[in-house]
Design a protein that fits this description.
The complex is a heterodimer of chains A (about 450) and B (about 300). Chain A is of the alpha+beta class and about 450 residues long. Chain A has four domains: about 5-55; about 65-175, Fervidobacterium nodosum Rt17-B1 like (Heat Shock Protein 90); about 180-270, no CATH class; about 295-445. In chain A, about 35% of the residues lie in helices and about 30% in strands. Chain A has helices at about 5-30, 35-50, 95-110, 185-200, 220-230, 265-270, 325-350, 390-410, 425; strands at about 65, 70-80, 80-90, 125-135, 140-150, 155-165, 205, 210, 240, 245-250, 250-255, 290, 300-305, 310-320, 355-370, 375-390, 430-440, 445. In chain A, a hairpin with a 3-residue loop joins β13 and β14. With about 300 residues, chain B is α/β, with parallel strands linked by helices. Helix content of chain B is about 40%, strand content about 20%. In chain B, strands 1, 2, 3, 5, 8, 9, 11 and 12 form an eight-stranded mixed beta sheet that branches. Chain B has a two-stranded parallel sheet with strand order 4-10. The chains are: A alpha+beta (about 450), B alpha/beta (about 300). The interface between A and B is large, with 46 and 52 residues.
Amino acid sequence: MFKTTKAKLIFVIIFSIICVTITTLIVIYERIDITDVEENDSQENIIETSNKEKDVAGINLKGKYNQNDLKIKSRKATKEKVEVSYFEIDGLRNKEIQNKINEEIETTALNYYKEKIKDLSEVVNVTVTVSNTGNFADTLSLALNYWSKIDDDSDNFYQGMTGLNYDLSTGEKIPLEKLFTSDAPIIDILRTSAYHSILYYYSEETLSGDSVVNNYRDIEEDVANFIELYKRGKLTDFYYTTSYICIFYEDYSINIEMEDWADYIAIYSRYLAKEDLYDSNIIGYKNLYTLTDRNKDTYYYSNYQNENNYLIDITLDWNENETSSFEKELVADKIEAIEKEIERVKQLASQNSNNFYILNYSIYLNTFVEPEVEEEIIHYYENGNSYEMTVHDFEENVEPIVISANRDASVSGGASAIVYDFGEVLKIEPQQSIEYYTEDGEKIVI
Amino acid sequence: MENQMKKNDKIINILLIVIMILVVLGCAVGYLYFAKAKPVEEDNNKETLFTLKNYPKIDGSISTLPLAEAFKSAFTGTDIENVDVTHSKTHNAYLNLINKNVDLILVPYPSEEELQLAEQAEVELEIVPVVKEPFVFFVNKENVIDNLSLTQIQDIYSGKITRWNEVGGADAEILAFQKPTNSESQNGMVSLIMQDISMMPPITETINSGMTDIIGVISEYNNKSTAIGYAYDYYAKTMYPSDSIKYISIDEIEPTYDNIKNGLYRFQTTYYAVIRKDEPENSNTRKLLKEMISTNGQNIAKEAGYVQNY
């Protein structure tokens, strides 16, 4: 091929140059810093994710939501000086997820106090309580609190709090930032909420009953530290209810009122699962107003139905233990009457779609000893009424009263029975009815 | 003769083939060395001044937390993500130093109360400046105002100027927010800006705290289009998102790094490293203090977002 030595030499030189050039190019290509590319990729991912999540809405203040169909079963555990009250959930269709959540609740409840209490011989006792604070929007939020007396001779104690927050469709924990919409000004929300919450701890009551802050102490540093912790992903101890988010920071509870930041709170909409998550759909209340809550266990009987053109809101409070057969009969009769009335109202509603119907009663039954006759008296008290109006009237004038009454009642954990007062807008007041009976069922007048 | 030539030709051919093989092998070795070998990790080979075990106990203000982390990371050769530093806030940090719970604190200059506490405990403090921090004024990003004179700021906060159009802005009332009494930023406002001029009463609000109303609470800067607020740079950067506020210059001088370092922007404070004066000459605490103010330490501080003092 190459006739002369010179030609061969030129070939080898060209070959060598080509080899070195190709190697150099490959080396340069391989040494380009891939971190930049990765960063760009992850940046794009963040933008993409945030674009995707722009659709997650804040809270509709006139909107409604459903409680989860979970059974909450109380559990107790006692070991040495430690007494633990916690619970487990039942009713999730996916038992694997349910077991995972229950195991985590139990493990946290039994061990969380060890963060501060290394040796039980140092303390008198440890009391751990787990509360179910948010059971809606296909999520579950729990607050864990432990308290431990250090010795009998002083008021010294250990205390700690944390939260557990679950996406029920995956069993994964929910991080704080996911409670907010993607466009939420989280720093502003945290700063304002921290400032207001910490001020509460610094406030002193005046003679007029109001409180004032005379000493702002370290508040600027505390608020900055709180935000610094958020930026570092270290605000992990929190829980939420239907109306506020509570973040534990040092010895403070920082409350974020959802009503104040409604446009930016995503918890009502982000985790709604498409598939049917639960074994049944009759356990939780349906169509409760946003930022309100109710607890079925509070009442012996409750009936809440909030549909297109009727609202049924009836509670009956009665302790069925150690009661007379007459009392049981009376309650059964009353419930039968209530349910007949509910059916009548629902029938009216289905026949008159332009009208709105409300059936609202709070009933309670108790016994007391009448000193004059020294006999146990059964006291039946009923307060409420039924109302009829146009759908337009309901939406414009009546519904705001209903929402407001529900939100006020929820402040105390949803325990209060609600009797709506529409006197100003409908000119009809709730009516009270009181009846007294002897144990034998004789109606009497007191 | 012909045989000899053929023989030579054969040797040359073999030689050239060997050269070509060597070139290919050289390229392969070069490729493996330059492209595949991991870059030498400088930190691993570099000797650090301290280990996590013998690093002195540090405390300080919240505003110096990133500085303390940067120092600990660099001086112990620990990744910053794995550095565990907590600061118990300014006053507690002084108490911890006086009570000998910590060795060194990174803080603003001590207050009268803190100096007295040290004296009562018979602890002499050695106070060494480490970094500078600007005191800044900020407004909503949409506000047309980019500069105010010192006199204008004093007039705004003493209540003489109440509308933005009096200083070249929109025809709107100025919402001049103040900081909580005795906070680091409020003390800076009084000493650096207002000097002997009295400040007007702050904007206040009533907060509903569930059980009672807290009245007369000093309102937080809310970043409305007509608002103006102030703070030390750390607090401003930490507490207000940078995409919604803008710093303004004072007397046409912006609070830039160079202007702060060379003192042109004169509204600034210093963060100090404070130790007990009886700290032995060759102790780790003194070594650390020396390192903090060295060129290396000052570069670390700059990277952490602070202005070098030296």
